[in-house]
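Subject: sequence -> structure tokens, single chain

Hey, anyone have a minute? Need the predicted structure for the following. Not urgent.
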Amino acid sequence: MASTIPDPGAARAEVTPPAADRPGRIEAHGIDHIPDGERHGHPRELFSVWAAANVNYLSLVIGGALVLMGLSLWQAVGVIVVGNLFWVLTGLLATSGPAAGAPSEVITRALYGVIGNRVNNAVGGWLVSVCYFALNLAAAATAAFALVEKTGVTANVPVKVAVIVVIAALTLAISVYGHALIIKLYLPITLALAGAFTVVALAVLRHADFSYAPAEPAAGAGLWALLVAGVTMIASGPLSYTTSADFSRYLPRTSSPAAIAGWTALGAFVPSVVVSSLGAFAATAVDMTDPQNALQEILPGWFVPVFLLALILGTISINALTAYSAGLALQAVGLRIRRTVSVLFDGAVAVALTLYGLLVSNFLDTVSNALQVIVVLIGPLMAVYATDILLRRNRYDGRALSDETPGSPFWFTGGVNWAGALSLIVGVASAALCVNTLYTGPVATALGGVDLSMPVGMTVAAGLYVLLGRRAVTATSD
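Reply:
Had a minute. Here:
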């Protein structure tokens, strides 16, 4: 398979980005292999990419929701820390990008086969990404509506539609220009958001009740049900990023895997914990059923417009990554379209979902239900991918992975790697039996309402892949 001898051009590329990947140009690559001579950058760049994407309104909403669910303040903070530890898996997956010189949407052909992976990308890649795009766009839009109202303009339905379209357009512009612009923009965005949320933190901590506990504290099975549901909500964020290799694939092949994993995980973990905790602290002082308006009660008046702008900017940052990956997923499904076209199509679908979520449904209920149910799928997806990296010792042949013909080593049987497909299907089925959100599965019923869908689904999927996938991994490792 592919040689592991470094290309001498890779060192030069680390200093000077190639013409195909510069901030002022639309990214030339889609799901195709990135040659060693076009690799550049340093793993530390990943910190700001993931930090900017995780200082956002949705994290505030979820942090506040934990207290509203009936947890005490420190129980909520504990849940936030534990749930965000799953960013370690996101970091692990990012190491496969430089190893293969390919995005996650292509690397997963090693797990599911060329044809099987198209189904994976259609559901676990494209659909999940578009749903998250819509959830985050809805979050940004609520902040933007308030900002519009402060200018004296009534946020009626036509104005709301226009605002959503403008935010989506700004987001998609970043996604269309792609990787180099993301790397360039996200450090200053991280610094700006850190400054804004420092002011928010000072205001929230002045008003927070650090001894807060609900009037009727949960206990026994009821408490465990709340704790597990809370961890599941928080973990749904990192578990949704089975696409982290998309943003590391341009790094030189010789980049340290530990550095790639560490900067990715740390960049996401720190702001996620801080912002979600601020939401929990704020819930002890104000009514976080309406977080945006509630926080304005304790923020300095002059800062409120800045706060709203920061919420919008943070959400644009996370959604630019989501839209970027959704575009790659649509290409990997088998549609022969340019990445720019696929990104714009994804944006149109997400805008439609957002309009429904804001104008028809209840946003907070939609967020809670979606995040908990979607883990039934994304938990096993993450588990199978992470297990493959460990079994394969991160050895991927990027050029072979780009071959979609029946002669590809990743064609397996009829285009499907049944070891990966069965592991995923059984993992999802196992998780579905344990759900207690929109419906209650038999396992959750037997446990008094405790929802173990995330740990059960991930454990079953990973364990089964270890048993079934070793032969396929050995045959296709670089």
